[in-house]
Design a protein that fits this description.
Blueprint lengths: L2 H4 E2 L14 E3 L21 E6 L4 E4 H6 L3 E8 L4 E12 H5 L10 E6 L4 E5 H4 L5 E6 L2 E2 L9 E3 L12 E7 L28
Parallel strand pairs: 2-6, 3-12
Antiparallel strand pairs: 1-2, 3-4, 5-6, 6-9, 7-8, 7-12, 9-10, 9-11
């Protein structure tokens, strides 16, 4: 199928929801730096390690489901120039996770680690936003593996490479550190509205 059939220009009434140079994705593209190790653990066997400048702990799947659950409708923006409007995710807001962690006051950044060799960092202030989510479901269904299931980060105010799939670890740090794509020249912040694709932007 041609690229033209996968994407469309924004409708005039929705143009203000699209960052510069973005087009509307007609489906949900699945892009990734590398596939995760196989087989992935079953959902009930999944764990999330929290470490660094925080009291270290490992959250089980049951622990995650015991935290406050939220449903958020979000617009998402990929660095490869597509935007998808009104995506519906379910999971744990990152701010609600922070409420149950014993953070070191020196912590200023969080590195999200995936199964395999992938990571991306955000500031702790990002993590305190209302619209960041540790998502386990999409559209009311368990999150598919190709979209990062069983658990992924969703950070809609940044390009989607920051929304780490197959999430297995959260490292709290006292400084910014490049993740997988940042170490390869991508922008450390990745604001789609400012077109922060490359560190030189």
């Amino acid at each position: 199928m041609s690229r033209r059939k996968h994407f469309a220009d924004p409708a005039p009434e929705q143009a203000g929801r699209f960052p510069p140079r973005q087009r509307q994705a007609l489906g949900f593209p699945t892009l990734t730096a590398a596939a995760p190790p196989q087989p992935l653990p079953a959902r009930e066997d999944w764990t999330l390690r929290v470490f660094g400048l925080v009291q270290e702990r490992t959250l089980s799947w049951a622990d995650l489901l015991a935290l406050p659950q939220s449903t958020l409708t979000l617009d998402i923006h990929c660095v490869t120039y597509w935007t998808r409007l009104d995506t519906v995710w379910q999971g744990v807001r990152t701010r609600d996770l922070l409420d149950v962690l014993d953070l070191d006051p020196r912590a200023t950044h969080v590195m999200a680690h995936a199964l395999g060799d992938y990571s991306a960092g955000l500031t702790l202030d990002d993590w305190r936003r209302d619209d960041l989510l540790l998502a386990h479901s999409y559209g009311g269904e368990p999150l598919e593996e190709k979209h990062g299931g069983p658990l992924r980060l969703v950070a809609p105010h940044r390009y989607f490479w920051k929304s780490v799939k197959w999430l297995e670890g959260l490292e709290f740090m006292d400084r910014d550190r490049p993740g997988y794509w940042e170490a390869r020249g991508y922008h450390h912040r990745g604001d789609p509205w400012a077109q922060e694709r490359w560190e030189s932007d």
